[in-house]
Amino acid sequence: MDYLIKNTVAIASTEFPDARDLRIRGGYITELGNALAPTPEDPETVIDASGCVAWPGLVNTHHHLAQSIMKGVPEGLNQDLGGWLGSVPYRFWPKVTPDLMYHAARLGLFELIRSGTTTCADHHYLYHSTTTPELEEAVWQAAEELGIRMVVCRGSATETGSHEGMIEHKIEPESVDQIIQRLEETRKKHHQTGPDAMKKLVVAPTSLIHSSSPEGLKAQAEWARANGLKMHSHLLEVTFDETQARKKYGQSAIDYAESCGWLGPDVWYAHLVHSDAHAIERLAATQTGISHCPTSNCRLGSGIAPVIRLAEAGAPISLGVDGSASAESGSMLQELNLTWLIHRAQNGPDATTLEQVLEWGSQSGADILGLYNTGSLAVGKAADLVLYDIDKPRFAGVHVPLMSPLMCGEPVHVKNSFIQGTRIVSDGCVAGLDETELTQSVRNSVAALLNGV
Ligand SMILES: [Zn+2]
User: Fold this and answer.
1) In the predicted model, is pLDDT for residue 262 greater than 70?
2) Does domain 58-368 have CATH number 3.20.20.140?
């Protein structure tokens, strides 16, 4: 299907900032301009986008979709990361069946799409030695059904390690050989190459410091690079990473990561909240990226990542929602809004600009994921774009309409959304998804999760 989108209030395009119309052919943006005429000889669907602003689809670089059915678990509400991991994700991990994973993934992806997201990187770490492949397949299936661009970051643990939750809940780690064999199976089945792949696989041990061996990390890095795959993990979310790295390996967390081959332009980390000057220097020098997840960092009291200093040093910046067990909104738009605000609280009113934050949430994230031909609205780029309806009282007073979703924050209303030129939201409805059925499925899943815990 080809589209001509006409009469937007504004389009977030640095290539053609004055454009109001946009044409999509064969999944790609072929024209930006004004008063573009329909082409009857080459039929296309004309969409009147009056009252809407067009943005590049947002790119979420860190999620845990399984947690979408673990929101607001009472035991973890007022705990820090270590306590919360034991009370919430690790506690429920052994209970997540492929069926529950499927409904959780549908909910998480629905929430992303509803907030304007077109690409999701999910850090899926529910693997132990006896896990069946269906648990991972449920994630791929949900993504395929909703039409979202999907990056599965394949988590792993080779040791129960220093996170108490894994020991407490008797989660049996995999061997390095098992991890690589399973990675290879997924790579053959799902991974696509190319700058606008719809499905990508990433090598993503869950924690470098707490549940992986140096040999396992080196083996996974070597395998990832031999196969042209990117690498991802958590790092320096709390100071425990730093103290454990010094205790176990006699060096800082960032130096340990580097010694295992885990810094580079093909690596990005969630959080990096406790990066010191040396860590910032190494991250920037190696072009290692960050997925900044401010809502989760606030919710768990972890701190504020030094994103402004990382950006000034030249490190690649992207944004992520993190799992909904510690960021209940599941909204990328909320992450943009909070990123815009929170660094001003810390660094002053000129610390962030609206344009910079949108770039972090779109093109910069796409680049970190290797999806270079997505993430912005320009001729030749894959047509991943969102039409936010701002024809509402709360947006009407804003003097810069293009940025009103970012400034005003949630609730936003995505009227239409496209991924690789396919319309996945039509007049506010996510294609192929019945919200009443989803709500009931999620309620049933929560009940099943609690059963016997
Ligand atoms: Zn995470």
Assistant:
1) yes
2) yes
